From TrEMBL:
This is Polyphosphate kinase. ATP binds at residues 48, 468, 564, 592. It comes from the Bacteria. InterPro entries: PP_kinase, PP_kinase_C_1, PP_kinase_middle, PP_kinase_middle_dom_sf, PPK_C_dom2, PPK_N_dom, PPK_N_dom_sf. It holds the Pfam family PP_kinase_C. It is an enzyme of class 2 (transferase). GO terms for molecular function: ATP binding; metal ion binding; polyphosphate kinase activity. An intermediate of this reaction is the autophosphorylated ppk in which a phosphate is covalently linked to a histidine residue through a N-P bond. It comes from Gelidibacter gilvus.
């Protein structure tokens, strides 16, 4: 139980998350970021916000509706108060995002890219739009005519709708909703005129074609304003014993579409009559976050803004590098048998993971393959390699997490396909998500079984591997892999708690081991020995871990932390955290690596991990934190951390006031993601 929580000791998790999303918005505002990339950061900001309301806001709302304050879980703020604070922050951020979007539109015009609305269409564009509407749009539309006599159908979670109001000559009114289909491109590229590109949003194309849609109504005026509803994204499971686990997850994912509303966003120029009608029909109440917005919602679609061939308005693409000493043209097993190798995507190519699994699928000496899967790519070479292995007679065991939030359906589809093709599926442990990222294969060599494998900080997903930074350790270290096999044994016999000599496994040992490492640093600094801690995490929200770091700081242990997202720790407070510095890096790639470094009297203990320092990762998930024993890899990880720590271009300082200030100094410019790529390129030249 967390006691004496106050705003000076912890930063509320939800508010810290909103601060993180503000850092994403800063990238959209940054004039040095290429223009189309700035639009895509706006899309990421919007997508993040959708997920925040589905999950975090919905959770706080549940606490409030249960009549609880939730102060001990929410950093000292009551649930009701927090809901109000969140809404006010989001209204401000939405307003800022609209201003940023308007600025980007002006900059795009300077680059001969014009985003036009329904009032700016000329004759040639008129013909194109009318034909496009008839051929592509009209057949896909879902139009709901609103009536007091007919119950409003459930509106889809996070879908965008145009609320239409028609006024007749006798002043009677008819209301309708147009669902903007997700199957259609949000951005319609119109014919070029010389060097100029023209784009119209689907929303405005529909506004332009309102008369084609509603021509059976003899109205005098018609208007259309966008609305969007976000629903509680929690999965609720049935207790029907006749259904398989896959069926229960599948049904629950479908049920999510009709979950309780938690946010309602509307075009602030909509008239009061239409707004009140819609809110009443949808059951929006004072507990929901009602956000007045701009003309366009679902700005997450800007993540897919067309590039129009304008490479000058995009980040320069990097060519993923090979790993020094590890060839894709020879046996990976042969190389890994000699030493460990570290893959750092996207700087280095994800192809090594696919090559490893392809080789295992074909090698007659490979008998068993075991792997955990959390999020798969839509077209997954990882999954096809595992199916290939099963067809070749290997025993393939996949521990697949069907509750990977918002990716459940993709995992269900692949689970069913793998099951059909002879893969042995494990669905984890009741009450625990399987979030660990690991693979072990067993190969017969000289009449004995030798293990090879890899452990990672990220998902085995080809798509995200081009966008997320992650570490993957390839190893034949039998000490580590013997422990990994025990984790798979735990999946099958989870009434037993196994002991591990090398890896650290949640939920049984992570807290104890991490506390032990921190205590060693505290003891060493008290005895005048070298002591420090370096951490790179996505999130830090566990109050017990924050308290332990405060204890280390008070003892004099120097702590450097790179935390991308949520950080409930308040750094730099005298008598509590003056020895702790925290930065956050938001740039071209999503920082996803998790690294733990403990000085250990100048004999560093270094780990990579699938786990953040959040209560769920430590107590409610199966996570694996893996030691690094190879000295070359240790040096590499320390080098890369050092480069990131010295970033003075994209790093923000998380100080006591949590203001998201860019770190600026007079030292030579270090943009860490670019410098890390150069670091690996230079290693190949050595």
């Amino acid at each position: 139980m967390v006691k004496d929580i106050n705003s000076n000791t912890y930063i509320n998790r939800e508010l810290s998350w909103l601060q993180f999303n503000e850092r994403v918005l800063q990238e959209a505002e940054d004039e040095s970021v290429p223009l189309i990339e700035r639009l895509r950061f706006l899309g990421i900001f919007s997508n993040n916000l959708d997920e925040f309301f589905k999950v975090r806001y919905a959770t706080v709302k549940r606490i409030d509706e249960a009549g609880k304050t939730g102060k001990s879980e929410l950093g000292g703020i009551s649930a009701g108060e927090l809901l109000e604070i969140i809404t006010q922050i989001v209204i401000k951020q939405q307003s800022d995002s609209l201003e940023i979007l308007a600025t980007i539109h002006k900059r795009l015009e300077d680059k001969n890219i014009h985003i036009v609305n329904e009032t700016q269409i000329d004759e040639s564009q008129h013909r194109f739009i009318k034909n496009y509407f008839i051929q592509r749009v009209s057949p896909a539309l879902v139009i709901i005519i609103l009536s007091e006599l007919v119950k409003l159908p459930t509106l889809k979670d996070s879908a965008a709708y145009l609320a239409v109001k028609m006024v007749f000559s006798d002043q009677k009114k008819q209301f309708a909703l147009i669902e903007i289909p997700k199957t259609l491109d949000r951005f319609v590229v119109l014919p070029k005129k010389g060097p100029d590109n023209y784009i119209i949003l689907m929303d405005d194309l529909l506004r332009y074609c309102l008369n084609d849609i509603f021509n059976i109504f003899k109205y005098e005026s018609v208007s259309a304003h966008m609305i969007k509803i976000t629903r509680d994204g929690e999965l609720d499971f049935e207790s029907d014993l006749s259904k398989s686990f896959i069926e229960k997850i599948s049904d629950s994912v479908k049920h999510r579409q009709i979950g309780e509303p938690v946010r309602f966003v509307y075009d602030k120029t909509i008239d009061d009559e239409t707004l009140l009608l819609l809110m009443n029909m949808m059951g929006i109440d004072s507990k929901d976050s009602v956000i007045p917005g701009g003309r366009y919602h679902n700005r997450r679609d800007y993540m897919d803004f067309p590039s129009l061939g304008r490479t000058d308005l995009l980040y320069e693409k990097i060519e993923p590098l090979p790993i020094k000493g590890l060839s894709l043209e020879t046996s990976i097993f042969h190389n890994i048998a000699k030493k460990d190798y570290l893959l750092h995507t996207p700087y280095q190519t994800f192809s090594y993971i696919v090559k490893f699994l392809r080789e295992a699928a074909l090698d007659p000496k490979v008998k068993n393959i075991k792997i955990t899967i959390y999020r798969l790519a839509q077209i997954s070479h990882v999954a096809s390699s595992l199916i290939n292995a099963a067809k070749n007679g290997k025993k393939v065991t996949v521990a697949i997490e069907l509750q990977a939030r918002f990716d459940e359906q993709a995992n269900i589809d692949y689970a069913e396909q793998m099951q059909t093709d002879g893969v042995n599926l494990l669905f984890g442990v009741k009450g625990l998500k399987v979030h660990s990222k690991m693979c072990v294969i067993e190969r017969e060599e000289n009449n004995k079984i030798k293990r090879y494998g890899f452990l990672s900080t990220g998902n085995f997903n080809e798509s995200t591997a081009t966008l997320y930074t992650d570490y993957t350790l390839f190893t034949s270290d039998q000490r580590i892999l013997k422990d990994v096999v025990k984790v798979f044994d735990f999946f099958e016999t989870n009434y037993r708690i196994f002991r591990y000599k090398h890896i650290i496994v949640s939920p049984h040992y992570t807290k104890t081991k991490l506390f032990k490492f921190i205590d060693t640093e505290i003891e060493n600094v008290k005895n005048g020995k070298p002591a420090y801690i370096k951490l790179k995490l996505n999130s830090l929200s566990s109050y017990m871990m924050v308290d332990k770091l405060y204890e280390a700081s008070r003892a004099g242990v120097k702590i450097q932390m790179i935390v991308r997202g949520i950080c409930c720790l308040v750094p730099g407070i005298k008598g509590m955290s003056e020895n702790i510095e925290v930065i956050s890096i938001i740039d071209k790639f999503l920082e996803h690596t998790r690294l733990l470094v403990f000085c250990n009297n100048d004999d560093p203990k270094i780990y990579i991990s699938s786990a953040d320092w959040m209560s769920r990762n430590i107590e409610n998930r199966v996570e694996v934190t893996c030691p690094i024993y190879d000295q070359d890899i240790k040096n590499e990880l320390l080098d890369v951390f050092h480069i990131a720590w010295n970033d003075n271009v994209k790093a923000r300082l998380l100080c006591g006031t949590h203001e998201n200030k860019y770190r600026r100094n007079n030292l030579p410019k270090v943009r860490s993601q670019f410098e890390i790529y150069n670091y690996y390129a230079n290693k190949l030249q050595d």
